[in-house]
Amino acid sequence: MHRRPTPASWLLTVALLLWLPPAVITPALAQDEEDLVEAETIAEDEEVTDIEASQPRQDDPAAVSTPDSAAEANPAPDPARPEQNATAPTAGDETPVAGAAKVVAPNIDLKDVAPVPEAPVAEPEAAGTTADTLPTATPTVTGGASPAPASPPVATSLTLLNAEVLPGTATRLVWAPGIQIAGLSQPTPVLVVNGVNPGPTLCLTGAIHGDELNGIEIVRRTVYDLDPEELSGRVIGVPIVNLQGFQRGSRYLPDRRDLNRHFPGTPTGSLADRIAYSLFTQVIKHCDLLVDIHTGSLRRTNLPQLRADMNVPSVADLTRGFDRMAVVHSTGAEGMLRTAAVAVGITAVTLEAGESLRIQEHQIEAGVHSINSLMEKQGMISRMFVWGDPEPVYYNSYWIRSEHGGILFSDIELGDRVNKGQILGYVADPITNAQHPIRAINDGRVIGMAVDQVVMAGFAAYHVGARAATPEETSSDDSPEDQ
Ligand SMILES: [Zn+2]
């Protein structure tokens, strides 16, 4: 009774197998992979049989939280790493939870393919159980992340998810929102690279909508291409935020809520509120800069583009670092991750690339390229290859809706430049044979569009951006907002 995977899902599955902890691979995806991932290699607790098999470890909470385990994780705390000495004073502003285990995260060579997470990292339980207490203990991490310009530049440890990530190291951690039945939670991998030099903390989040796959690959390629010895600052990548949706190929959470309308969340609200709150307090608040990666929704595709609140100077400034990227001003809706992040002082944008449920090489390449240019612009990396000058193009935009139901056929392609009155496509009525043209309302560029499909009257079919001279004023409305 095997499902035949589509090429895209198969590719994705293989990619995920290469680096995800086996525990996050779910029945939906993993029917075939179960053969590859034997139970004894699973360090976490996802399957019932695994829980039964791993009883000794799981049943002993002390193994997770005692200082002994920390000692095991880091038997020789300070060898040949002078920066570590500098961590003590500055780590204080991270205010780790009293009594919570803070183990030094194992350094992982990012060139290696998918070593199974080591035992010391097996603290998803700790992350889950402290989810309620941690937030109050980490009120303002943001400001402390980047050192004052005047002080001597010294990279510091990053305390994240109960682990201490030393400068010059990379590791995999897990985030567990703690919303599921104890022992059945599904920890979400968090990739961390702490550069040997100080700099801003850049966060990359993918698949907040579980069916938006391009961002997962953009995060993977970006993070695994980094060398902590050559990085200034930190990069935190959460490739699949909405693991439950991802597993079901769904945009939404299991309760059908849109996670990206619930940030920053609350610890006492709905499922979505709690997941949002957990991510926001445990991960996002550590970020100085945030790129939240999405795709179009409802079978619409997007030219790689940023959605940014250009009314916020720091955000407008950040967009200038993205090479060859369209920028659409959008103040964002309440509850979006980027909106909530900006509200607490994090410089955040949404990056849109392509359509949902697909892995699209061109879109992925564009996203990776542009994020690399951003890191270069921020002084985080210095690559040998030559970038074009970062040249974002700013757009005011509007959506053109179909006035008729029928089958949509487009005459234009994503990225095309169109003139006012130009026919963008037709809606064909399959019964009457009527052909209803859809025309451009203005000159501009097609920055988003529906793929050919059956539509009803009112369906937003084409997103046309009109070049804007300067980043200001509002444009993008809420309608097919896919962020
Ligand atoms: Zn999205």
Low-confidence stretches: 1-5, 12-99, 116-147, 471-482
Shape: globular
Characterize the main sheet.
5 strands, mixed, barrel
Query: What small molecules does the structure contain?
Result: zinc ion
Provide the residue-averaged pLDDT. 75
CATH structural architecture of the largest domain: 3-Layer(aba) Sandwich
Structural class, by secondary structure, is alpha/beta
Q: How many domains?
A: 2
Fourth-level CATH superfamily of the largest domain: Zn peptidases
Number of strands: 19
Tally of individual helices: 16
Computed over alpha carbons, the radius of gyration is 23 Å
Output the CATH class name of the largest domain: Alpha Beta
Tell me the distance between the termini: 36 Å
Strand content: 15-25%
Sheet with the most strands: spatial strand order = 9-10-12-19-17
Describe this structure in words.
By secondary structure, the chain is of the alpha/beta class. It folds into two domains: 8-377, Zn peptidases (Aminopeptidase, 3-Layer(aba) Sandwich); 396-467, OB fold (Dihydrolipoamide Acetyltransferase, E2P). The chain contains 16 helices and 19 strands. It has helices at 7-19, 27-30, 48-53, 55-58, 61-65, 67-73, 87-91, 124-129, 134-137, 142-145, 214-224, 243-247, 271-282, 313-319, 337-343, 361-377; strands at residues 103-104, 158-160, 163-165, 169-175, 188-194, 197-206, 232-238, 289-294, 300-308, 326-329, 347-354, 393-401, 406-410, 417-418, 423-428, 435-439, 444-450, 453-455, 460-467. The strands form three sheets. A five-stranded mixed β-barrel has the order 9-10-12-19-17. Strands 16-15-13-18 form a four-stranded antiparallel β-sheet, with no helix packed on it. A three-stranded mixed β-sheet has the order 1-3-2. Helix 11 (214-224) links the parallel strand 6 and strand 7. The chain is globular. The model is unreliable at 1-5, 12-99, 116-147 and 471-482 (pLDDT under 50).
